[in-house]
UniProtKB/TrEMBL annotation, chains A, B:
It is an enzyme of class 2 (transferase). Its EC number is 2.3.1.35, 2.3.1.1. Substrate binds at T152, K178, T189, E276, N400, S405. Pathway: Amino-acid biosynthesis; L-arginine biosynthesis; L-ornithine and N-acetyl-L-glutamate from L-glutamate and N(2)-acetyl-L-ornithine (cyclic): step 1/1; Amino-acid biosynthesis; L-arginine biosynthesis; N(2)-acetyl-L-ornithine from L-glutamate: step 1/4. The keyword 4Fe-4S does not apply. The record marks T116, G117 as: Involved in the stabilization of negative charge on the oxyanion by the formation of the oxyanion hole. This is Arginine biosynthesis bifunctional protein ArgJ. InterPro entries: Arg_biosynth_ArgJ (IPR002813), ArgJ-like_dom_sf (IPR016117), ArgJ_beta_C (IPR042195). Its main location: cytoplasm.
Amino acid sequence: MAVGDIAMPQMHVVKGVKIGVTEAHVRYPNRRDLVIFEFVEGTNVAGVFTQNAFCAAPVHVSKKNLQTGDIRYLIINTGNANAGTGKTGMENALKMCNAIAEASHVQPNQVLPFSTGVIGEQLPIERIVDAVPKALLGKEDAWGDAAKGIMTTDTTPKGASETFELDGIPYVMTGISKGAGMIRPNMATMLSFVVTDAPIHQNLVNKLLKESADQSFNRITIDGDTSTNDSCIFAATGQAGGKTIEHEQDPRYLVLKEVLFRVMKRLAQLIVRDGEGATKFITVKVEGGANTDECCNVAYSIAQSPLVKTALFASDPNWGRILCAIGYANVENLNVENVQVWLDEVQICQDGGLASTYTEEAGVEAMSKTEITIRVDLGRGEATDTVYTCDLSYDYVKINADYRS
Amino acid sequence: MAVGDIAMPQMHVVKGVKIGVTEAHVRYPNRRDLVIFEFVEGTNVAGVFTQNAFCAAPVHVSKKNLQTGDIRYLIINTGNANAGTGKTGMENALKMCNAIAEASHVQPNQVLPFSTGVIGEQLPIERIVDAVPKALLGKEDAWGDAAKGIMTTDTTPKGASETFELDGIPYVMTGISKGAGMIRPNMATMLSFVVTDAPIHQNLVNKLLKESADQSFNRITIDGDTSTNDSCIFAATGQAGGKTIEHEQDPRYLVLKEVLFRVMKRLAQLIVRDGEGATKFITVKVEGGANTDECCNVAYSIAQSPLVKTALFASDPNWGRILCAIGYANVENLNVENVQVWLDEVQICQDGGLASTYTEEAGVEAMSKTEITIRVDLGRGEATDTVYTCDLSYDYVKINADYRS
């Protein structure tokens, strides 16, 4: 069960985008497992991808094709990650692009392929190629179908959508994501696709994606495993009119950046809320750092600690585990006597020791909620950073250990 | 249940060491929770300690006292870690030293204090102080009692002991350790004490400990959490005679080093074998690295991956998860096409993809054993490193989440 509010909002149509969803029988019958995004000519597209050295074949191809630019299609299959598949895997990723190129009179390198699902098995490429013509019959109003179409064992489709105005012109920003699902065998793969119909120069599309992904998708953790297939795409069709935003100094840029960040943060948080076995949604906010990096390290150290995560699952205000995780985050010359920690509004650690106002009762009450903020003040500067995570439950082990039984 | 062979060997007496074990009622009645080691005058003692910034009060005191040298006593309590206890905690750690000093006519700074157990509560220092005189009535032949006396919720006492000869003189190396236990609330604390009656110069005692601990205790992981209290002590009483070993060039040095490494490796592996919820003992051996650091990083990346660890628990030959963990270990310019992976003798990954000889049947058989070696060849050099770990089971979550229910 996903944690908290995970409802799909109204998914506003983005001018210049058509979406087709169909069944390719990649792994299971009766499952819509192939999604194609068609972008109008002139759309500017950017992508960020997993840093994993064993990245999947489609990640290689997408990275390469983005370099030549002028991207017109995204093709996404679930059920098979096309990772660890060697030369044949690369050929199959290219065949996915070729299939669209042949049917649509674009070049193969104007297509970005994405795959998620089983690792180490070859794609059933004929079935995918055969299904492409049907998925090309896209329509504008299919974001909800697309959100479902990219799910693996996500328990819920994930979407975010906003309307906004720049200089009086209405625009839309709509996106979908998928997260920690699993198909035998598998790992948590994150995919996200966000599109706006605002007119944005390619350089700024790249920059906006990088900055927003860094503060959203790059600030979540479920189990610390970085997948082979993680990909996040941002595209701007420019079809809602207005003059192209070309510089960061353009006052519209900051508005746009805020909208994109909100949408991506929501999509990233939805992945955590639907994390494998998650029963709680945890915000780890670290303040008072000498720089952002050390705040990020401390936040991740807490968010990834199995001992902290099992304590969160158990609603156990085991503040020693939080201090311990702060202590091994490699903050240089950390003076523990300046460290404060709160669970929501309850101060548990004061000047490096147990807070004088703390009561076990208040701690248990704070830990019993399904949404908890762990706030740390390092007491050494003005920097701050925030990471989102979930707890570690029996079901995490069950989901990842038991699917063969 | 601990995994595999965890039997206590014959614990050979070390000349120059007396050990007393008694009940101080630190947390529970009827439990021998206070251990004192008495070293003969002239014993050379070295210690290595947790890197955690929130290290416990006794760790601070032990580090400081080691600087002045001439250590005569170790005092260890279980049931309370004296961590996160601020100024009072420091005072209590010093009181443990004072209690021995008063009863034994040594200086307080000739005593090293150790605590393990609950975090964030003050020691019942009067009960400990009151019990000191009884624990000072030590005897030589009490290593087995000491191994039991430092247990928290370890399921088994942990010991290793060897006899060896240097230049025809017989010596003994005996040690004990405790590992991942838990008392509410708590974290995995590692303690280890190893003593020999061979004559070794203080500088070499320091060096031997550092090198051996680095290849043993610093090469194990259960959940990646670095405790606030981890401590490892090596002492040489010199009471079995012979000329003091003063230089690494002394041919006896290498023999001694091998014995110490074997004893410490055994004590470290015992901690993993008795890891919380462990059902399997895993050796992760990484070969063919450009340097030891990258081998160590890859080994830890595999050994700490929750996805790999749950697959091991499930006996699922999910080789994609192993590749994935190699891929995010930050090895610079890793050419995945040179990577080979074996489960015991079964090659699962060949040149970065599925091995041509691999069968699911062979994979399942290899994964079903309770002792498994994951061997990785990075194909980029001659360096190698090895890390020991266990799997991640329901019981890990149960032990760390459920103790309040």
